[in-house]
Specification:
This protein is mainly alpha-helical. It contains 7 helices and 5 strands; from the N terminus they run αααββββαβααα. The strands form 2 sheets. The protein has a 3-stranded mixed sheet with strand order 4-3-5, with no helix packed on it. It has a two-stranded antiparallel ribbon with strand order 1-2. The longest helix has 32 residues, at 132-163. The N and C termini lie far apart (49 Å).
Length: 189
């Protein structure tokens, strides 16, 4: 794999990630980079985060809310607090057993797996306002809205495809039924 060429902007973005131990969001990195050099645009920061991740210099962590970045590139796990959004490394070794089992079961060559655990951090649990029943309900509601957002996306894409005449026959019928189901699920149909 070809490495991307090093630039002043990429160096500033990498240094900004290196200054963090808290798995910063791209937005946090953008703000800090912009404070260092106001001429570096948000697009440049995002492009450089992507390049640094592709080159293996940082780790891109996909979590609910906003993706995060980590200077640690070894194989390890993360946990996110569903209340405050804090992401931390989990202090135990990477387990390669699932990789081997999946490879044997599927025939794939498995390089790694990624797992992000979700829970409530000790700080949020000690807050007087924490209520486990309310938190379970909040997570349930979050998952409902996540599903509704996916359905809305399907609805939008499907409608555009049908209007554009991109689908015909059975495919158009199936998509029409899926769109009707989406509309019913979000309470429109």
């Amino acid at each position: 794999m070809l490495k991307h060429r090093e630039t002043k902007q990429r160096g500033i973005v990498l240094e900004t990630v290196r200054n963090h131990t808290d798995h910063p969001t791209a937005n946090t990195i953008c703000e800090e980079v912009h404070a260092i050099d106001g001429k570096i645009s948000q697009g440049t920061v995002y492009r450089n985060l992507s390049c640094l991740s592709e080159d293996g210099e940082i780790l891109h962590i996909k979590v609910p809310g906003a993706d995060r970045y980590d200077l640690r590139t070894d194989l390890h796990y993360h946990i996110i607090c569903l209340k405050c959004g804090k992401v931390i490394d989990i202090p135990f070794n990477y387990l390669s057993d699932p990789d081997e089992k999946v490879a044997n079961a599927t025939g794939y060559t498995v390089f790694r797996h990624r797992a992000v655990f979700e829970g409530i951090c000790p700080e949020c649990k000690t807050e007087k306002i924490y209520n486990p029943k309310e938190e379970k309900e909040r997570v349930k509601q979050y998952m409902h809205w996540k599903k509704a957002a996916a359905q809305a996306l399907l609805l939008a894409v499907g409608t555009v495809m049908l209007c554009a005449g991109a689908l015909r026959g059975e495919a158009a019928t199936v998509l029409s039924k899926a769109i009707r189901l989406c509309l019913e699920c979000v309470g429109i149909g």
